[in-house]
Amino acid sequence: MSHTDFIRQQYAPNISPKRRADLRARFVQCDVDNSGYISAFELQSLLSTEANQFPTSAARMLVRIYSRQGQISFEEYVQIESFVELCRTAFHGPNGENRRQLKRAEVSEALLSLGLNFTPETISLLFKHFDSTHTGILTLPQWHCFTSLCLLGRRLFNEWDVQSKGELIIGLEQTLLIGIWFLE
Q1: Mind telling me which residue stretches traverse the membrane in this protein (predicted)?
Q2: What's the rounded Cα separation, in Å, for the pair 183 and 75?
Q3: Residue 40 sits in which domain range?
Q4: Angle made by CA atoms 59, 136, 121, in degrees to the nearest 5
Q5: How far apart are CA 48 and CA 54, in angstroms?
Q6: Is residue 65 part of a domain?
Q7: Exposure winner among 6, 25, 47, 62, fewest CB in 10 A?
Q8: pLDDT tens for residues 146-179?
Q9: Burial grade of 147 (CB within 10 A; 0-12, 13-18, 19 or more)
Q10: DSSP secondary-structure letter at 71?
Q11: Entry pTM
């Protein structure tokens, strides 16, 4: 099992043929060199909407989840796009209220809708980091950075939880690898 299979299983299990064809057309249009792969900047372009530009840092993080070469395939794009769409849905609200910001009190429920469960302390720490304006709210781009980091953490956890016990013993080498991930 790949370290990223959980993304496909949890966030992109059943893509309709029509949706898949639409995503393929967008991917091919963005893949200007016809290599079958796109860069983080091309991914950012694909995930941006008229209302919000997808954050560069979040696009880079999502690419890093899949590839150390800095490019992703169409199948990987499908999984990422599905995750991002679910993040948008969680941000806008469970009843389609189309909220424009996410308050601190709403974050836990939004994360749970994505299958991400953290302690209140962890959520507070992450919220404080991504609430760069210190207003007590997250915008959609800030939310994308927040959830991309959560997905990266989950991917690393899955990779290092080799006994599937839900716990890690991290040594110096893993600590250095984590540091490298965030330096690049």
Answers
A1: none
A2: 27
A3: 5-164
A4: 80
A5: 5
A6: yes
A7: 25
A8: 999 998 888 888 888 878 887 888 888 888 877 7
A9: buried
A10: E
A11: 0.85
